[in-house]
Amino acid sequence: MNAPAPAPAVPRPYSQYVYAYPHKTAYRRLTPRPSLRELWAGEPKDALSLYLHIPFCEVRCGFCNLFTRIGAPDGLTGAYLDALDRQATAVREALGDGEPVRFATAAFGGGTPTFLTAAELERLCDIAERRAGVDLRAVPLSVEASPATATADRLAVLADRGATRLSLGVQSFVDSEARAAVRPQRRADVEAALGRIREARIPVLNIDLIYGIDGQTERTWTESLDAALAWDPEEIYLYPLYVRPLTGLGRLGADADAAWDRHRLALYRQGRDHLRDRGYEQRSMRMFRRADAPATGEEDHACQTDGMIGLGCGARSYTRGLHYSFDYAVDMRQIRAIVDDYTARPAEDFRYAEYGRVIDGDEARRRHLLQSLLQADGMERAGYTARFGSGPEADFPAELARFAERGWLDGSAPDGLLRLSEEGLAHSDALGPELFSPAVRAAMAAYDVK
After folding, report:
1. Whole-Å CA distances, 307 to 141, 166, 322, 384
2. Measured in whole angstroms, how far is the alpha carbon of residue 105 from the centre of its chain?
3. 432: helix, coil or strand?
4. What number of other Cβ atoms are within 10 A of residue 54's Cβ?
5. Digit-coded pLDDT (tens) for 239-295
6. Is the separation of the CB atoms in 417 and 1 below 8 Å?
7. Run of H or E including 169
8. Is the Cα torsion angle 433, 439, 440, 445 positive or negative in sign?
9. What is the per-residue pLDDT for 246?
10. Nearest 5°: CA angle at 396, between 416 and 12?
């Protein structure tokens, strides 16, 4: 039914981090621009996800290729929130009044949302509630922060407005490794920030760590893991270091090779086993959750099927038939231009989608399989078949056969469950890209990263 995607004979374990499919580099300008009212007219709206993007950071880490700019001239954050307010109002109107609109989950990301002052964070929450229409105290609200911006006044605002999860980008507790990742921070400041977060009593603390940093050893990796565990976080994410074009490390000429792949894979396995031995359950290649952590309450939102409303430049939105966003860039000058363009837009401009990619039946199948399979729980074949009218083996015989031959599928999984083996989870960043369609691969290859 579907043309099998080409695959390398011996895939590298760290081909590409797949956190959404299709990737933004497969998006193109939409001509003519479709109206949001038409796009959302026939969509289910009873379990939407809301994401607000804040594209500002105090520094840009050497590995970062996210849509973010360093600092903000006087007045820019206020102008950005003004534009966010206009966009949220226009989008909420586009969702219509014919059927109830309900958000099941919300998140503030970036960039660094806590780059905003406490008063600006209050306004951000007001925009989410009064303009977009989400009750932040009634749904899971996740917020990203950095150690330097996790101040007591900001955290108090987030706790008061209903934040249930605070994700702190630490990356390494070893100062020399932080410098090697072009991330200027001191362990003492990180520890102080973690203390403030615990004092704020936000229910779930997540700590992000990175493995594969120049100079990192098994000993120093254990040091970072144990330093994180000392705070008893509900979640820990372990990320492999990537060197991407136009990032600080990319400009320094760092590159990947087979020896580095082996090193990262060894550190991943070490970190995985270390956390599991200490009571953490593996939820994906990256995510580890304390077995007794409180429930997040996200059970009624499914990322494979439910829609997402993204507000702010750098945010994506998903309907069943189209994924869309604003323009994308990595280069600082290009990002500044896109942010300036966003802040100058009139309300009418926010009633249309500008860049995106159509999701046809084949792409919907790929997305569902990919986003389900990369979770440790795997995918129920019956749910896939009920949605698409065919089974995954019938739709993707070559890919699944290849994964099985490599030992990436769990042969002991219960009947009806398609699940990755431990080795499959370890190779998620190789497996995910092999499910990309030929059309998406071609679009990504042709994209001029700027």
Report:
1. 17, 23, 10, 17
2. 14
3. helix
4. 28
5. 999 875 544 444 444 556 888 899 999 999 999 999 999 999 999 999 999 999 987
6. no
7. strand 165-171
8. positive
9. 46
10. 105
Sign of CA dihedral 70, 76, 81, 85: negative
Task: Tell me the chain's radius of gyration from C-alpha atoms.
Answer: 21
> Which amino acid is located at 195 in the chain?
G
Contact predicate 132/309, CB 8 Å: yes
- The β-bridge relationship of strands 280-282 and 287-290 is antiparallel
Residues 6+ away with beta carbon under 8 Å from 429: 13, 14, 15, 16, 17, 18, 240, 285
Query: Measured between alpha carbons, how far is 57 from 72 in angstroms, rounded to an integer?
Result: 9
pLDDT digits (tens, 9 = 90+) for 157-180: 999 999 999 999 999 999 999 988
Beta strands, E only, 113-243:
141-145, 165-171, 204-211, 235-240
Q: Using an 8 Å Cβ cutoff, are 350 and 33 in contact? A: no
Please state, as a whole number, how many other Cβ atoms lie within 10 Å of the Cβ of residue 334.
17
- The dihedral formed by the CA atoms of 157, 161, 164 and 166, expressed in degrees to the nearest 10: -30
- The domains located in the chain, with CATH, are 24-290 (3.20.20.70), 361-446 (1.10.10.920)
In the numeric block, which tokens belong to residue 17?
A: 């981090």
Buried b (16+ CB within 10 A) or exposed e, 145-170: bbbbbbeeebbebbbebbbbbbbbbb
Q: Is the preceding peptide bond at 22 cis, omega within 30 degrees of 0?
A: yes
Start-to-end CA span in the chain (Å): 36
Q: What is the pLDDT of residues 101-154, one digit of tens each?
A: 999 999 999 889 999 999 999 999 999 999 999 999 999 999 999 999 999 999
As a whole number of angstroms, the distance between CA 408 and CA 126 comes to 45
Q: How many CB atoms lie within 10 A of CB 376?
A: 18
At which residue do the structure tokens 């229409």 appear? 133
- State residue 182's pLDDT score: 77
Q: Which amino acid does the sequence have at 173?
A: F
- Do 334 and 450 form a contact (C-beta atoms < 8 A)? yes
Tell me the three state secondary structure of residue 162: coil
SS3 369: helix
Residue 205's φ and ψ, nearest 5 degrees, are: -105, 125
Which positions of the chain have pLDDT values less than 50?
7-8, 246-253
